[in-house]
Amino acid sequence: PDYLKRLRDYAGTPLTKMALQLLLLTYVRTTELRAAQWDEIDWEKAEWRIPAERMKMREEHIVPLSTQAVTLLREIQKHSGDRKYVFPSETNPSTFMSENTMLYALYRMGYRSRATGHGFRSTASTILNENGFRPDVIERQLAHSERNSVRAAYNHAQYLPERREMMQWWADFIDRMAAKKSS
To answer: Does the annotation count 56 as an active-site position?
Structure first.
């Protein structure tokens, strides 16, 4: 909850702040977020389809988007305009946000050596597991590969309906935490 207050009060650039917000809502890897392109967003299905070549495991990854994430993306669109990247670089708009932009924002928020963008993934996994979501669904959302090679060969399930429900629960959970902190 303290992080949510610091993020709300963060005085950095709007796109950096919104990148941190979207990272929290989607808990993708920072590289995947920074290189996100507008043509990967399916507004009708409320999905972000990250192509295999941009994924650590070299498999396309579908990120179901909560209503909060869709609303945030619409706001981001106002700031990044008609550029290719959702989070264009401030110094070179033909490329995407630098690796250190979000990290330095976390530092400025008081989280030097206490938090990284990757830490959101761990936090989300822990909270979702503690709240009864199935580990297979959580691991698929994190785009983790199956460690059991036999199971990996046979199970190609996406669990999209469950993941969609889980992502909405997660966004609502964040909203509840933010409301508690501000009251």
So the answer is: yes
